[in-house]
Structure formats: C-alpha cells, structure tokens
Hints:
The chain is α/β, with parallel strands linked by helices. Helices cover about 40% and strands about 15% of the residues.
Amino acid sequence: MKKVLSILLAAAFVLAMAGCGGSTGTNPPASSSKAADSSTATPAPEAPKADPAKYAVTEPIEIEFWHALETDNQDTVDKVVKMFMEKNPNIKVNAIYQGSYSEVNEKLIAAQAAGTTLPAVTVANTPYVAEYGASGLCEPLDDYIVNTGFEIDDFGAGLVASTQFDGKQTCLPFLISTQVMYYNKTLADAEGITLPEKISDMDAFMKKAAIVTDGSTQRYATIVPGWDQWYFETFFLNQGVKIVNDDMVSTDLGSDKALAVAKQFQQWHNDGVMYWAYGTDASTIMRQNFIDQKAFSVMHTSSLYNTYAEKCKFEVGMHYYPGAEQRKSEVGGSVLLIPAKLDQKVKNAGWQLLSFMCSKDVNMIWAEETGYMPTRNSVTKTDAGKAFLAKKPAFQTVFDNIDNINPRIQHKAYSAFSKIWKESMAKAIVEMGDVVASMREAVVKMDEILSDS
C-alpha cells in the first residue's frame, strides 16, 4: 500500500456537518507529525526582536485572500475586508472564494508547485496543519508574533496547540468549531431531562430522553453522525483509547477498552434509544429528525447553532460532550496561514491581514455572523461577549471549555485510516453485525495503513 496514500489529509468532516467539523482528534496527544497537544503547546518564543521595519508595509500592494465561506457569509467577508483596508490604505485585498476546504487544499498545492499564484493569506481546514508544517508550505509566524506584539496567549491553549507544528506557530486559529450535543431545551425543562456530564451517565440519559414502545422508537435520545468519525471518536479518546499510538504506526482500537466503547454504541442502537446516522443524506435526515422532535438531541458541530436555532420551533440548548478519564473535545473549522514561498513584501502584507482577521477587534463579528465560536478568552469577558451570550446563551458551554478543545490527529494516513474505521463501525452497528469482529478486522487494515505511510 506504500505510495498509494495521499500526502495531504482530506477533510472528512466537515466537516459532514456542513463543512465545519470534520475528522480526527488527539488522545492528548495522539497526534503524529509532531503537532502539539494542549498540555504541551509551545508559547511564542521570546526571540531577539528584529528590525520592526522588516514587517512594515510602506508601499501600496495588492494581495489575495483565499477563503471557503459561502454566499450566505459573503457580506461578513466584505465587511471585515473593508474594515481592514480602511485601517491599512496601502494594502488592497481581493477576497476570493475557492470552494470547500478540500478544493482550497487542491488549489493551494497546485499554486505551491507553480510558485507564482499563491495567495498572501489562505484558509485551511484544521487537519492539514501538520502536513503543511512538515512540507514547509507555511511561513513560521513566531517572529511576526513577537515583533508585532500579537497576543497569541489570548487564544485557548488547545487552539494554540492545534495551530503549531514542531514547536513553531505555523498558522493562527480562524473560524473554529468543536463537537457539541444540541438538545431540545424546551423538552428538557418540561420533562426534567438532565444532560450527561459523564459517559457513565449516558445510560440513564438515554432511557429518560428516548421514547421506545414495544420495540418501536418514537423519539431517539440522541443521534450520532456515523458518517464522520470526528463526531464519535471523542468518546473513545475521553475513555483513554489512543486512536493512533505514540509509535505512529499502530492503533489502540482493537483493545478491550476500545471494543467496549464500540459495543456500547451498538447496544444503544439495538435498544432503539440512539440512531447511527450513516449513508446517503445522513446529515439532512439527522437534522430533520431533530427539527421534527423525533430526536431529543443530536451530536454535531458548534458552528451550526444558528441553523438549528432558526429552524427549530423550540429552544435549542448546547451541551459539551460528556467525559470519562478526561473531558475534552476536538478542534474543527479552519486556520489562516501565509505561504512561505512568497516575497517578503507580500508576507508582510499578509501578516497584517492575517493578524487583523484573527484579532480581538473582529473576533466577535465572525462569531456573531457566521455561527463559529469566539476564540479569544478576553473577548468572551467583554461587553460584546456578554451581549453575545445574552443573545445566544447556549454558547456558555463553549465559552467555559475553550481551554479543553484539543488539536485533531495530524497523521498523513488519517484520511484512509478513518475511512476504514467509520465504515467498519457503520457496517456493524447499522446492520447489527458482530462489532468486535468487525473492529478487529478493521484494525489489521488500519495498522497496515499507518505503518505504510
């Protein structure tokens, strides 16, 4: 299987879940390729300051910004770019929509190879961080951060870690999401349903929130997006399972601990209290079941809060995933980076734009108008942050857990690896097969993929 794997990760999720969440996660740190976890994030180094003029933009320049925000967010993109150009009259920015994250990746790799059509700033889905860092595509940002006084530590520790490679800050958090449980708060209040804080609370929650009569389900307690492992792998990680072992060439998914998690998912599905969403239109079907109150809750990306809140005729709550040995979630969404091949003048202009779009000045604009979460700790405590919570109180759980969002697994084989895993889980759960045998068979293939990469 050597050489057949793609060097770059393909976004699995999204993010599914409308391009926002996606695949992968670390068991702090089950990352490959030296990507840091939240406990080992390397703060911006106190390097000797270079000449500040090195990063100044003193002459008019025109640059490109590549993004993946679709039409419904175009007004926000235009607003932020206009704000930037008013503050930086020497820099003209052409914001160009390049399609999905995977399409952006394809175009970026092609431009990198050509070396002449690279944008000054580009968005990238979070799984690409390690591969871009390893290939040298990204301009290291540490000197820029130090010399311009950019407050990198204001981001949550996990967000800083998820944008580093080999101890260097290769990009910055941009439009960030994480996994959450959306639930029917109106029903929860009326029926006294308590959301699970621990995975050990899930059985009681399932029995209380589901309605199953004579083997027929009228209401699921929750729906798991089986089309993307990003949504269910956190249950494995929080119970101490290493998706990718420290040796980077094997997985722990065949262990007794991992098999117990898989069997529990299957049992909930067999009991009719949980639905495993997989196959054609799985995301659409899942959402509609929740909107129609055929499901008390769904596991999805935090970036879709606006969508759920607007379409549901009941109050939508948001709950942080339950924990066990740890209670962590995983980063989703996108980062911003500057290609290293650019001329320094273009890089300087790119840094001005990148740092502005990730700054406290516009952090709440992105959060309020796109549905992605605030990423700045200080911003969540400002009047704007308080106003945001007053308008969207469900986001309190995300505000409270910004430091608990871990980087995703950064392994060049993870796309092929995770495809086998999610197909194995779906086959066993949906078809009510032998989940243990299915997982053990999948582990043989997954170990081969990891060792061949």
